[in-house]
Structure formats: structure tokens, C-alpha cells
Design goal:
228 residues; mainly beta; three-stranded antiparallel sheet; 3 helices; 18 strands; 31% strand; globular
Length: 228
């Protein structure tokens, strides 16, 4: 029996157990620590446009909600141990962008010692009307895409610090299923940090990755999009 299988069986019951430094795992749940990455409350930079939701240190903190010291590869291992099944990041087939696949994941945050968990996507707002990204017709939530490993054995998301993305790049561990392009000439950036909900820069939070049951997934149009 493999070490990973033994871990998966051990985490089936009880409270989350620290599997790796800073990664707590139980059945269908993974928790990590993070902190607020950017200052969206500074009067000179009120609109912080986002491309990431959670990134690693010294990467894309200026366009990410949270930063965490956890490596994407270790997050991947934790999700596997919790029973999640990875799919694949966004890819290109016959001039179309094919959305990421994998087990559906709800990413939530908790401040301090409170018991209240808030969906991280609620921290993302439209620059024009302030509406949450969760209300956008194209938003289909997040999946365990699982990144990829190159011929040298390097986990692609580790190079970029890409734990959870808002714009799918093709190398993140957890990806949205929509196919919004990171190229501003194709899709104009419109998503910013919600100043009403995002805490001050540097505030520490606990992040929880929880399985989304299929019954909770709303019907959405096929997000596959032709490349311009």
C-alpha cells in the first residue's frame, strides 16, 4: 500500500491533521495559512486589478488577494490526500480554449479565531458596479486542475507560485473553469479586490479548500471559447 493511500485512509475521519508543515487535511478538506497580499485600501491605489486569488511569495502579490508560503506542489499533495481528483489546466485545441477540469472546490477564508468561513471569490468585485464575481454569468467556480510536471520533473505551478488563479494561465494548481484570457487585448480586466470585504494588507487568514457536491453546482453555458 502506497504512503499516499495510507495518508488518505488516515484522514477520512476527525478534525484536520497536519500532513505537511502548514497543510491540514481531513476528508474532502484541506486548510492552509495565508495573509492578505495587497493594499486595496490605500487612497492612491483604490482599484487593485486581480489575476490571482492565492499566490506564493515574490510572485504576483500585486495582483493577488492572498499570499501563502505553501508551495503549489504541497497543496496538490494535500488535495490528493483529502480525496480530491485532479483534472487538467486550461488548454488549446483546434483554436479553442478548453476550460480546466478536475474536482470542484470551494475556497473559503476565516479571519483570526472566528468560526465564520467566507467564500474567497466574494472578495472579487466588478470594477464598474461592485458586483461579486460569483454573480457573473460566466463564473463557474474553481476546480483541482493539478498543474503539470515537465520532463525535468518540475511542477509547473511551483515556478509561478500559482496556488489559486482568477485568470486561468494553464499552470495553476486550482483554476477557474471559465476561459478569460490574461491578455488585456482579448479580455479587458474588470475584476478588482472588494474593499468592503478584503482586510488590511498583511492580515493573516486561514484558507479552506472544500469539496463542492455536484448538486450545488449551478447550470452554466459551455465556457469553451475560440481563440481570437
Amino acid at each position: 500500500m502506497s504512503v499516499l493511500l495510507i495518508m488518505m485512509l488516515a484522514f477520512r475521519v476527525g478534525d484536520p491533521v497536519e500532513m505537511l508543515p502548514g497543510i491540514w487535511v481531513s476528508e474532502s478538506v484541506v486548510e492552509i495559512d495565508a495573509s492578505v497580499a495587497m493594499d486595496c485600501h490605500h487612497p492612491e491605489t483604490p482599484d487593485v486589478y486581480l489575476e490571482m486569488m492565492i499566490t506564493g511569495p515574490d510572485t504576483r502579490e500585486h495582483e493577488s488577494l492572498l499570499v501563502s508560503d505553501i508551495t503549489p506542489a504541497n497543496l496538490h499533495a494535500g488535495l490528493l490526500a483529502a480525496g480530491f481528483v485532479p483534472g487538467a489546466p486550461i488548454r488549446f485545441e483546434d483554436q479553442h480554449r478548453v476550460p480546466a477540469t478536475g474536482d470542484r472546490i470551494l475556497v473559503e477564508t476565516r479571519l483570526g479565531d472566528t468560526d465564520e468561513w467566507i467564500e474567497l471569490a466574494l472578495w472579487v468585485a466588478h470594477v464598474e458596479n461592485g458586483s461579486s464575481v460569483t454573480l457573473d454569468a460566466g463564473w463557474g467556480g474553481l476546480v483541482f486542475a493539478g498543474s503539470s510536471v515537465n520532463e525535468a520533473g518540475v511542477y509547473a505551478a511551483d515556478r509561478e507560485g500559482a496556488l489559486v488563479s482568477l485568470t486561468p494561465w494553464g499552470f495553476e494548481t486550482v483554476s477557474p473553469v471559465w476561459v478569460v484570457s490574461p491578455d488585456a487585448s482579448i479580455d479587458e480586466p474588470v475584476w478588482i479586490a472588494n474593499r468592503e470585504l478584503v482586510p488590511e494588507k498583511g492580515e493573516e487568514v486561514r484558507v479552506r479548500f472544500r469539496r463542492v457536491e455536484e448538486d450545488d453546482i449551478r447550470e452554466l453555458p459551455n465556457p469553451s471559447t475560440q481563440v481570437e
